[in-house]
């Protein structure tokens, strides 16, 4: 919420437990959807049984799946971080790796401050993220034990870690502002490559609001 406020937004938190009609009413009053980090999406949404390491919050799933469906239908900008990126992919028809064992990179580093840059990701040169970051190689933090497996049909992978995991997705349709990142840019705001993501999201939300009011 601090990162969004710093970029000029007025964040409004919506708690789990509200019904679908209430979620729609809230989204009709705001200009963008931000999906934060958290526990794991239920694997039933992509046709798998629960892994022993998977931690689930079904009320949170219900809220975010409803919110994503509404936001997509409205053409609203969407930004997802960590779990937010995963639930966005699941909501749009993709799947997840339920648990990552440490390999070339240990992606789950709760022993380190989130301001620590753990590894590098390579950005697709034609991606919005590359344009915002001004680079194709980006140093990021890491605190996830799940990752995107099959990208949703409406999304494309635009960043990968050195071991080949998807680290960011964007909408296939370049006219849609929809980005999910597996890392936590809100903890790296001292780097312009990360703060620019929030600035661009808020700018897209402002443009969406103007179009909705017919003043663009």
From TrEMBL:
Listed InterPro entries: Class_I_gatase-like (IPR029062), Peptidase_C26 (IPR011697), PuuD-like (IPR044668)
CDD domains reported for this sequence: GATase1_2 (cd01745)
Any one GO BP annotation for this protein: polyamine catabolic process
A GO cellular-component term linked to this record: cytosol
GO molecular function, a single term: gamma-glutamyl-gamma-aminobutyrate hydrolase activity
One Pfam family this sequence matches: Peptidase_C26
Gene3D superfamilies membership: 3.40.50.880
Protein name stated in the entry: Peptidase C26 family protein
């Amino acid at each position: 919420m601090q990162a969004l406020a710093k970029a000029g937004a007025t964040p409004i938190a919506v708690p789990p437990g509200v019904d679908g009609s209430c979620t729609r009413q809230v989204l009709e009053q705001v200009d963008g959807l931000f999906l934060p980090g958290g526990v794991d999406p239920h694997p039933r949404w992509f046709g798998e049984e629960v892994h022993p390491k998977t931690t689930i919050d079904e009320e949170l799933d219900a809220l975010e799946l409803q919110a994503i469906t509404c936001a997509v239908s409205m053409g609203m900008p969407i930004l997802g971080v960590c779990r937010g990126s995963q639930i966005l992919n699941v909501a749009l028809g993709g799947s997840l790796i339920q648990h990552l064992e440490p390999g070339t990179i240990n992606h789950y580093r709760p022993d380190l401050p989130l301001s620590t840059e753990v590894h590098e990701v390579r950005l697709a040169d034609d991606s919005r993220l590359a344009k915002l970051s001004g680079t194709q190689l980006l140093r990021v933090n890491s605190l996830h034990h799940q990752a995107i497996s099959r990208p949703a049909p409406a999304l494309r992978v635009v960043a990968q870690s050195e071991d080949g995991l998807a680290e960011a997705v964007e909408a296939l349709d370049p006219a849609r502002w929809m980005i999910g990142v597996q890392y936590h840019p809100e903890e790296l705001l001292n780097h312009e490559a990360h703060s620019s993501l929030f600035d661009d999201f808020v700018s897209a939300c402002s443009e969406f609001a103007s179009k909705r009011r017919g003043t663009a």
